[in-house]
Amino acid sequence: MRSNRAKARAGVSLAATLPLLTGALALGIPAAHAADNPGRDALAGTRPVWATAKADKGATSNGAQVSARVYLAGRDAKGLAAYAQAVSNPASPLYGKYLSAKQTQQRFGATKAQVAAVTSWLKAAGLQVTSVTAHYVSVTGDVAAAEKAFGTQLHNYAKGSKTYRAPTQTASVPESLKGAVLTVTGLDSAPHKAGHKDALPPPDAVFKNAGPFSSYYGSNTAKTLPSAYGTKIPYAVQGYTGKQLRAAYGAGKYTGKGVRVAITDAYASPTIAFDAATYAKKHGDAAYGSGQLHQVLPGTYTKTEECGAAGWYGEETLDVEAVHAVAPAADITYVGAASCYDDDLLDSLGKIVDGHLADIVSNSWGDIEANETPDVAAAYDQVFQFGAVEGIGFYFSSGDNGDEVAHTGTKQVDTPANSAWVTAVGGTSLAVGKGDKYLWETGWGTDKANLSTDGKSWVDFPGAYTSGAGGGTSKTVAEPFYQKGVVPDALAKANNATGNRVVPDIAAIADPNTGFKVGQTQTFPDGSQQYSEYRIGGTSLAAPVIAAVQALSQEAGGGKAIGFANPAIYAKNGSKVYHDVTDNPTGSGLAVARVDFVNGFDAADGVATSVRSLGKDSSLSAVKGYDDVTGVGSPASGYVNSWRRH
Fold first, then answer.
1. d(Cα 386, Cα 381) in Å, to the nearest integer?
2. In what order do the strands lie in the sheet containing 136-142?
3. Among candidates 630, 363, 393, which has minimal Cα distance to 503?
4. What stretches of 580-622 show up as alpha helix (H) in DSSP?
5. d(C-alpha 182, C-alpha 76), whole Å
6. For residues 518 and 318, is the Cβ–Cβ distance under 8 A?
7. Cis peptide bond upstream of 504, omega within 30
8. Cβ atoms of residues 368 and 417 within 8 Å
9. Where do the H-state alpha helices sit in 220-362?
């Protein structure tokens, strides 16, 4: 699938909607292998649902090329999932008894004999082995060899307006390899395109916010503009800084000292070190210490045009600056993927787990659940389980399109946020008042109405829905144990009587209209590249903010890794450690006025004035208690210290 990211230049949000084909298994335990092919062990989920008889366009040419990954199940896949659950559950005697990366691989990873057997089988089928890692064996070869290896024909199928290759039946492996192979990816060609080695492009064109602004929520009332909800409204904030966010989420004296945070995105900003240092100096954040900001990058990049590589620079910049602003002493490692596709993003996550590069991992990317396939889901969940066993927690943005109906026509959640093995981070609109005082939050959801030509009214107020925090009920992931008894049945059982995973788990600032200020080197109209600042948001902001708050919490807990946090997060549900976020906390309706440059840069082409209503997230609602916009809520003043007991 092609990248369809929301661009920072639009001034709306910076969450990425990427070409992932991640699927969902209840707690990541591989689906049962069927015995529908005598003498073979079927790999459930390897035939996509769109490969129907009606869409079949005939056999793929035997000479066509296939690139695939055979993921290794390891010694004990069910044991891995069980240990990952136990070590993450405060009620378990194994809680917090993490293993090292080496111990995890020795206990649950593939054996040398399994790797040798899988490699030998693939070569015997006529495929060329291109790489072998602790998690998978990569191969290339023609269709005839792939069909021989995986016991299925490959046909071409119509999918929308395009045609892709896919198996005609579930792929399988020889019975002798039963238990050694988790899944195979790449037989379905829908997300894959021929790649080549690319150089990274220069930064995108400059984007700036117009004013007037508020310096804190409500500091500058739009007295000359029409009222909304019966009162004059404030101008949008210029962009909160770390000092304001630390106060809002109860950072106290903690700085994240001694805690390692990793960030994954695609590609790498060539100016990140300069931008991050400049931003910190301008806004009173602690200067970066020697070696405090690291990058782990691939040797080459691919699909730079298709993935909009330069657009990812802003994503990395936001994530790094947000983590440092809230947890200024935390060690930050940026792990860039070679492209925005699953294989490369999985490799980035794998690097973190295999090298235990961090205890907390922020991920501001995802796709819609409808694009999931169980094969890649199993690969993602295996990485998350390995991480949990080592005490590594993964935090994923829940999405920026609410229930996704306006964006896709179908009510659904985003992925990998839907995985039962990650912490899904929802979004809020945040009001920080004078003296950095926390005032309130609503669920992030925005309606927009423009100023009338005569300037006396808002046209069709409150206007049309533009964006909001992703959330809702998964259609494919079973309800995890930690949500039972907390998530209302009306949500958990919305799609299935037995219950499903509901997103998100926790929330933080996301609304671009109450957003965060970032500083980034951008390309100006004269062709020069200069550092400049702008306000941004999206759950791409919420994820690194929560990751930073978790770094503070880990420090408060004496440095002991929090690991996969969901069981402990839900165990605190209903306590004062959370702000219980609702959509209309003042009871009178909330909105801000916003003025934007028409050309996104300066006033040469005029400005556009609009009113942005808060707390209107598609069909989703932030209500008292758990909800599918903000989860259990946002961190309150007691949250960080609450981890001292664990």
1. 9
2. 128-132, 136-142, 65-72, 181-185
3. 630
4. none
5. 11
6. yes
7. yes
8. no
9. 242-248, 272-282, 311-326, 342-355
Residues 150 and 138: their CA atoms lie apart, in Å, by: 14
Distance CA 347, CA 334 (A): 13
Got the DSSP string for 217-261?
Answer: TTSSB-TTSPPBTTB--BBPBS-B-HHHHHHHTT-TT---TT-EE
Strand ranges for 279-403 from DSSP E: 293-296, 331-337, 360-363, 365-368, 393-397
d(CA 571, CA 631): 13
Question: Do 25 and 31 meet the contact criterion of CB atoms below 8 Å apart?
Answer: yes
Give the tokens for residue 487. Answer: 């998530």
Cα 635 to Cα 173: distance, rounded to the nearest angstrom:
47
pLDDT surpasses 60 at 78: yes
3-class DSSP state for residue 22? strand
| 465 φ/ψ angles, rounded to the nearest 5 degrees | -70, 135
Q: Are 424 and 398 a contacting pair, CB within 8 Å?
A: yes
Q: How far is CA 323 from CA 262, 264, 276, in A?
A: 10, 13, 11
Two structure tokens written together for 285: 């954040």
Does residue 456 surpass a pLDDT of 90?
Answer: yes
Query: By C-alpha distance, which of 153, 168, 173, 160 is closest to 48?
Result: 168
Confidence of residue 583 (pLDDT cuts 50, 70, 90): very high
| Backbone torsion region of residue 629, taken as left when φ is above 0, otherwise alpha when ψ lies between -120 and 50, otherwise beta | alpha
Do residues 626 and 426 make contact, with C-beta atoms less than 8 angstroms apart?
A: no
**How is 451-500 classified by DSSP, letter by letter?**
BPTTSSSBTTTT-EEEEE---EEEEEEEPPGGGTTTS-HHHHTSS-TT-E
Q: What is the pLDDT of residues 89-140, one digit of tens each?
A: 999 999 999 999 999 999 999 999 999 999 999 999 999 999 999 999 999 9
Identify the H or E element spanning 431. Answer: strand 423-432
pTM greater than the 0.90 cutoff: yes
List pLDDT tens digits, range 356-380.
999 999 999 999 998 888 888 899 9
